[in-house]
Structure formats: structure tokens, C-alpha cells
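In response to the reviewer comment on reproducibility (Comment 2.3), we provide here a single inverse folding case reported in full, input and output, so that an independent group could reproduce the run without further information from us. The C-alpha cells appear first.
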């Protein structure tokens, strides 16, 4: 039987959850306002031109807390057009590892390769590989939660096998309902 999720499901005490990492993304549940900043050329480490735009995002648990999903949208994305995105995060309790997948209206029917990682000391770092503009890149996501009402995310690329990294996308999250 399908059960409808309530607000209390998002804010319930998860102190009974095993301390294996499955609760690491619980901070993300709920509604957010997001200030986003993306490099004009995500493959150019020296690019100084940035697009800034606002988004809304809602995140919910799935699979009894072993995963979560969020949906984001903006009426004006980096190229001036509306944008919709979906993230799926799944936790593997055996490996104590999160995997993150991304899909968007910019590339319909496509699911990006997963990034994998975990949180340590309140900071989540996730790595993977992808092809962007026909070029193979190493990708790194970093999550931090400076307060219960804020969070930050950044994306970095490496074009030299991880010897050097450059940031090409950042997001600052603020709770939509204070």
C-alpha cells in the first residue's frame, strides 16, 4: 500500500537510524530557495564569466530513508531559459557509500553517471567521471551544512586526472520556510 508522506515524515527524529551514514542527507529534506552560480564555460578553468540565477528545490526521503530525491526548477536558468532538474541519491549500507544521479530538462532522457562518496566531519565529498562537450572529466561534488537553515553545494572539474580542480558551479541553499 502506498502511503502519502506528511511534513512530520520530513522532520521526524532519526536518532534511531543506524550511524552508518544513511542519515547524512536528512538535512536536505524540505523546501529551499537556491542562489546558483555557474561558469559560462564549465570546461575552462580560467573562465571569469558567471551566470547567476535563482531556483527552488524540494527534497524528500525515499526507500525508508535509504535514499532521497529532489526536484529543482527555475524560470530563468544559465542560458535564460526555464530549467527543471531531478537528483536521486541512494545509500549502500554495506559500503557506507552514497551514489548520486542527475537528470534535467536540458538533456531529456539522459541520466548522468553517478558520483559516489560519503560525509566525514559534516562535509560530503562525491567523485565520478563524465563526458562534457565530448571531453572526459573527473567530477567532484562537495556538500556542507553551515547551519540547520543553510547548505552549500559546489561542483568541480578536473581535466588532468585529479591533479588540479576548478569550481564551475555553486549553489547556496536557504530554507524556504523560516
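Designed residues, in position order:
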Amino acid at each position: 500500500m502506498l502511503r502519502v508522506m506528511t511534513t512530520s515524515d520530513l522532520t521526524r527524529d532519526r536518532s534511531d537510524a543506524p550511524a552508518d551514514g544513511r542519515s547524512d542527507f536528512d538535512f536536505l529534506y524540505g523546501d529551499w530557495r537556491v542562489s546558483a552560480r555557474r561558469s559560462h564555460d564549465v570546461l575552462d578553468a580560467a573562465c571569469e564569466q558567471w551566470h547567476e540565477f535563482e531556483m527552488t528545490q524540494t527534497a524528500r526521503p525515499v526507500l525508508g530513508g535509504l535514499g532521497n530525491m529532489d526536484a529543482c526548477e527555475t524560470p530563468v536558468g544559465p542560458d535564460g531559459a526555464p530549467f527543471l532538474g531531478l537528483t536521486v541519491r541512494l545509500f549502500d549500507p554495506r559500503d557506507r557509500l552514497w551514489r548520486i544521479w542527475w537528470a534535467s530538462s536540458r538533456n531529456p532522457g539522459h541520466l548522468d553517471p553517478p558520483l559516489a562518496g560519503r560525509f566525514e566531519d559534516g562535509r560530503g565529498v562525491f567523485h565520478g567521471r563524465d563526458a562534457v562537450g565530448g571531453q572526459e572529466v573527473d567530477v567532484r561534488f562537495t556538500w556542507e551544512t553551515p547551519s540547520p537553515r543553510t547548505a552549500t553545494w559546489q561542483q568541480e572539474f578536473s581535466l588532468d586526472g585529479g591533479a588540479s580542480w576548478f569550481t564551475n558551479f555553486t549553489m547556496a541553499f536557504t530554507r524556504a520556510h523560516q
